Amino acid sequence: MDDKEYVGFATLPNQVHRKSVKKGFDFTLMVAGESGLGKSTLVNSLFLTDLYRDRKLLSAEERIMQTVEITKHAVDIEEKGVKLRLTIVDTPGFGDAVNNTECWKPVAEYIDQQFEQYFRDESGLNRKNIQDNRVHCCLYFISPFGHGLRPLDVEFMRALHQRVNIVPILAKADTLTPPEVERKKRKIREEIEHFGIKVYQFPDCDSDEDEDFKLQDQALKESIPFAVIGSNTVVEARGRRVRGRLYPWGIVEVENPGHCDFVKLRTMLVRTHMQDLKDVTRETHYENYRAQCIQSMTRLVVKERNRKGRSRN
User: Fold this and answer.
1) pTM of structure
2) Which of 156, 172, 245, 265 is surrounded by the most beta carbons within 10 Å?
3) Where is it chiefly localized (predicted)?
């Protein structure tokens, strides 16, 4: 193209890219599920960091007595000049009590509080540096020792699926044989559909995407719930050093797609769908909350106006 015909707006994507990289990115990930399912180990494995080094481990008796609380762990990660502010929201005490009735409520309240804070900041005068603490994704860990979803699993996911992107995880996949993993996955998918639970829906691929990406995307969709193993231990396997777990019968490699779905989960969560998780949070879950707030405010204004009108008469 002749320079005289070149305006320059073709550089806009580069400008946006530079500005975004300079500003950095943020992502808030919630992990939920009963104790002992490897939540902390998996998070550390996913992001190659140690977010829980100061954590105090509780005994079984202490866990039973513990109420559900919300804890946050934030860390700044940098990779090839790209900065990510990662916040992990944990839910210790969830599902550990003798009576777990409505133990999802503190989790739902926390998500709503983040929406409320963002709504207030967005409605204020100074909106330049709004901190986004909205929860973009919830990894919900399902025990491998049951026959599928427990009533608590169903109750939790149904209570939260309108508030947050839920990604179901079949925990501790190394305790199951490959046929058992497939049977449990199928059973969980059937129950998710039966109970009307809305888990995170992968967006449809654009028609111009290459075939490799479409095949990868299809493989990710078919892997839900992701059967995972977490480990931060490096072991020797066939002359290679790999992250995995050493058993008397052999080694389970965390990053071997033939052993578990860890790589697929990391690909989805970080490499291909992190931005979509944030977009769905903003455009669907937060907008639903915002619409409810505005409707409530409108009803209050109308009610007050009618009350004043009646008092004048």
Assistant:
1) 0.84
2) 156
3) cytoplasm
